[in-house]
Amino acid sequence: MNDKVIICEELTKRFGDFIAVNHISFDVRKGEIFGFLGANGAGKTTAMRILCGLSFPTSGKATVAGFDVYKQQESIKKNIGYMSQKFSLYENLTVVENIEFFGGVYGLSSAEIRRRSDRLVNKLGLTQEARKLVRSLPLGWKQKLAFSVAIFHDPQIVFLDEPTGGVDPITRRQFWDMIYEAAATGITVFVTTHYMDEAEYCNRITVMVDGKVEALDTPGNLKARYQAASMDEVFYQLARGAKRSAD
Ligand SMILES: Nc1ncnc2c1ncn2[C@@H]1O[C@H](COP(=O)(O)OP(=O)(O)OP(=O)(O)O)[C@@H](O)[C@H]1O
Q1: ABC transporter domain spans which residues (predicted)?
Q2: Which of 11, 55, 89, 216 could link 49 by a cystine bridge, Cβ 3.0 to 4.6 Å?
């Protein structure tokens, strides 16, 4: 089915004897906001690196935007965007320089970059800050800009690795408005988060425990199944048996 933009079947990654990602299977549909949850060490980053075309699985199958994770890593990279709270923008470049840099990396023409850059700066309300160093922006603004840059080239899928870490709840809510807007244009959003209020905003959620998919459903169905009032409670019930912990 071509509305499935990510398909994983029994995807597995071993490091020696250790199975970091253990036969995980799931599909993600076009335009879906798919939450990828799990305690520290559950295997989220390892799985996400494979889906971004940065690492090979040990076994199993997966396609991303129709491309095979073993054989078509370069095509995957051209069709996705990526943002992480840990690194995203160049602090010592201005807002516009960052936009130009990433537009160039993604292969857009100079004219196209200029057109999209003006539109983006206006949309974000950053006209006053356009020529200022990103370093001087508040964290919430940096993250909104980083997200906008990650989807600047209209990728099919954007991977967000804990995109709102350290940001206050109001800014987080605004960030999620941007995520909804992107999803409404057909961009698929694959997001990891430790914030359970954000889990509630996802269309469907996977909870990983010790390398395995322990649950996969809508937040509403998960809450009903685990007789929980919140995703926090669902997560606690699923993750409390985890053997792995923070490294
Ligand atoms: N290159 C590696 N070699 C050996 N073990 C690794 C390697 N990369 C990750 N691991 C292990 O695989 C497990 C899963 O790690 P991973 O980073 O994918 O978890 P995570 O769910 O992303 O956790 P976090 O939320 O802390 O980022 C951890 O126990 C980690 O130590």
Answers
A1: 6-235
A2: 55
67 by Cβ neighbours in 10 Å (0-12 / 13-18 / 19+) ranks as buried
Closest of 20, 152, 150 to residue 85, by C-alpha: 150
Tokens of residue 233, six digits: 């409670």
Rounded Cα distance, 202 and 208, in Å? 15
Same-domain status, 219 and 140:
no
Asked if 175 contacts 140 with a C-beta cutoff of 8 angstroms, the reply is yes
- Choosing from 139, 154, 169, the residue where a domain stops is 154
In this structure, the answer to whether residues 146 and 163 fall within a common structural domain is: no
The CA angle 94-100-101, to the nearest 5 degrees, is: 85
pLDDT in tens, 188-206: 999 998 888 889 999 999 9
Mean pLDDT of the chain, nearest integer: 92
75 and 32 within one domain: yes
Q: Whose Cα sits closest to atom 6 in ligand 1?
A: 15
Please say if the pLDDT value at position 86 is more than 80: no
Which of 231, 159, 162, 166 is closest to 189 using CA atoms?
159
179 CB less than 6 Å from ligand 1?
A: no
User: How far is residue 64's CA from residue 5's CA, in Å, rounded to a whole number?
Assistant: 6
**Residue 1's pLDDT is what?**
47
Per-residue pLDDT, 246: 52
Cα 15 to middle of ligand 1, angstroms: 10
Q: What is the ipTM of this complex?
A: 0.95
